[in-house]
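User: I'm putting together a small comparison set for a docking exercise, and I want a reference complex before I start. The sequence is below, and the ligand is acetoacetyl-coenzyme A. Could you produce the 3D structure with the ligand included, as structure tokens?
Assistant: Of course. I'll restate your input first, then give the structure tokens for the complex.
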Amino acid sequence: MARVALVTGGTRGIGEAISKALKAEGCTVAATYAGNDEKAAAFTKATGIETYKWNVADYEASKAGIAKVEAELGPIDIVVANAGITRDAPFHKMTPEQWREVIDTNLTGVFNTIHPVWPGMRERKFGRVVVISSINGQKGQFAQVNYAATKAGDLGIIRSLAQEGARSGITANAVCPGYIATEMVMAVPEKVREAIIAQIPTGRLGEPEEIARCVTFLTSDDAQFINGSTITANGAQFFA
Ligand code: CAA
């Protein structure tokens, strides 16, 4: 039977590519989004992938949303915690709100996404958990104390979950994308972005599909022994 996959932030950017790639692998995919109804409707029209709207920062909303997905599509076998935001500012200018928003969405959001599906995975003795971290969780980044903290936190989460889930047939891994051609990176001021590209030995931004391929590899049935790992895909910009 087709595996059921949940991808948070699955209608845009890297998440969109992941949703499509998992569908191409034969999965039944549920893609979540937080606010952009228009984009989500266009995404469903183009791909046939069901979308669900909730805020990953809200535990009760995540739990209810996941229950709805499971009622409609079946038990979730694969969860990709991808939803994330930036609120970049040099530390001396970063507000407590900018700190909290990013922690709530990017880090607590990962807890809120995995926690409701974890008991079912344990019972069924199968699960694939992938968290989309970042190069900036590995190396840190000017103006991203908040974001880098969450992305480094992702690695602690998957390394702990890997140990807890291993006996239950569950794997938990992370992908650390470098700078990928998405709206998030395009929002960086052009001059800064050019300077970043100059630091990428491959000489270009990555493509969302290059990250999606890492996810389909980690979530395949025969990737059971790859657990607690991090795949780095950054064009040789940084070696963790
Ligand atoms: N290293 C060292 N110095 C830097 C720097 C860097 N990377 N970036 C900026 N600076 C310096 C500037 O040269 C400037 O110095 P001067 O004042 O001497 O000219 C100073 O820091 C910037 O001060 P500003 O007061 O102008 O900063 P600002 O409040 O306007 O903030 C910014 C600007 C938010 C930092 C903006 O430059 C920016 O967005 N930078 C990009 C940060 C970044 O890389 N974010 C990653 C987004 S993509 C992503 O997150 C996806 C992923 O996972 C990879």
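The chain has a mean pLDDT of 97. The beta strands are 4-7, 28-33, 50-53, 78-81, 127-132, 170-177, 230-233.
User: Thanks, that's exactly what I needed.
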